Amino acid sequence: MSNTLHxxxxxxxxxxxxxxxxxxxxxxxxxxxxxxxxIDFMLSNYVNAGIRDVGLxxxxxxxxxxxxxxxxxxxxxxxxxxGLRILPPFSFAEERSGEYRGIMEAxxxxxxxxxxxxxxxxxxxxxxxxxxLDVDKxxxxxxxSGADVTVVCTRKMRxxxxxxxxxxxxxxxxxxxxxxxxxxxxxAVESLEFYVISKKLLLEMVDYCAAHDLHTFAKDTLxxxxxxxxxxPYIHEGYVARFQSVADYFQNSEDLLNAAVRADLFNPAxxxxxxxxxxxxxxxxxxxxxxxxxxxDGCYIEGEVINSVLGRGVVVxxxxxVINSVLMQGTVVKSGASLSYVVADKGVVINEQRTLMGxxxxxxAIAKGSVV
Length: 372
Known about the structure:
Elements: E1 5-10, E2 31-32, E3 36-37, H1 39-48, E4 53-57, H2 63-69, E5 83-87, H3 103-109, H4 111-115, E6 121-126, E7 129-131, H5 135-145, E8 149-154, E9 165-169, E10 175-180, E11 189-198, H6 199-211, H7 218-222, E12 231-235, E13 240-242, H8 246-255, H9 259-265, E14 283-284, E15 289-291, E16 294-295, E17 300-301, E18 304-306, E19 309-310, E20 315-316, E21 321-323, E22 326-327, E23 332-333, E24 338-340, E25 342-344, E26 349-350, E27 355-357, E28 364-366
Parallel strand pairs: 1-4, 1-6, 4-5, 8-12, 14-17, 15-18, 16-19, 17-20, 18-21, 19-22, 20-23, 21-24, 22-25, 23-26, 24-27, 25-28
Antiparallel strand pairs: 2-3, 6-11, 7-13, 8-11, 9-10, 9-11
Helix pairs in contact: 3-6
């Protein structure tokens, strides 16, 4: 496959609906599951399928993302020829402020890179979804079906309707209609916005969209051509996590406490790779309690941790209680503090005897580096 399929990942979006969690970072660099970032999942999916050339399209607030992926060494993408390429908007005409309006505009911004792609086919999608996708099967179905475009979809409606696209199929299984950002979910499947397409057809589409000031792929490119192009769905039956609000982030993190979800998302046959931090093992004090929780390496636990996800280097002092919460790297919960339904970003300090409480539908998000 490495000779015929090229990977493009879009990492230019910072979702304002995630509030404090994306104030200083791109959505794709959002920590998840204690030791991972969202970008890890699709990068790993590409590498697991033998893809050795990946273009990462960025625009704003991507310093955290660059710090994490580096040269791509941890994904075996650090190469003299090909490998991981970071694609900032240097060739994009800044006629307006803000990020790209859609992936066709993003592709236009990296057009010279697309022209140099060596492979005949391209898989492209967003790096802000947690999924263990069998890219080999997606590509095989694309070739066998004779599709012009294959869209990765799920029957499990995971996204907010106003930020999602829904597909309907005819009797032959071909996509015949699309509902884009409707008020309520509708259609047989939800698009995960991953596409397989030939390089030749994609370049033609980018040229057309640039000439007509069109910027989205689903609405401006696919929908008007459903009668002309053969657009086929690939139905992903496994777990999918989408991140479109703080409540989404909290619930998706809590999902990882389910063994079946972990087994699907972290399938050892298709491992999810991340940046190697070489942290020491976690220390548990003699009176520490840890129940139904994911605790990353490098933590120091002397208090109580229940139904929670802890990132690397988290400290929970004696007498502190962390329940139904997500604490990112380097968070410190001091003695006597109590947390419930809290999402704490990196480097947060919760002082002694503080009580913080959110709700399962409205978790309390604490900004990076805050002292409470």
